Amino acid sequence: MTQGRSGLGRAEIAKDTLQVLTEAAATHVGRIASILSGAVRDVARELGDLASDVFEMREAAERADRASRDDLDAP
Question: How far is residue 75's CA from residue 70's CA, in Å, rounded to a whole number?
């Protein structure tokens, strides 16, 4: 095994490089996963809010329709 001035062989330098690369990749993948899970959470919340708005509007329209019919039926 060939060693440089620091006494480290090529295999050890390669191992250290691979280790640092693996750690960096894991860190970035973790950050990306966190971003994606936050985005999924936010989209789910917005869809839920939209559905709630639709239900509320439908109920309001039904109440308005009943009130309109009651007004027409009143003497």
Answer: 10
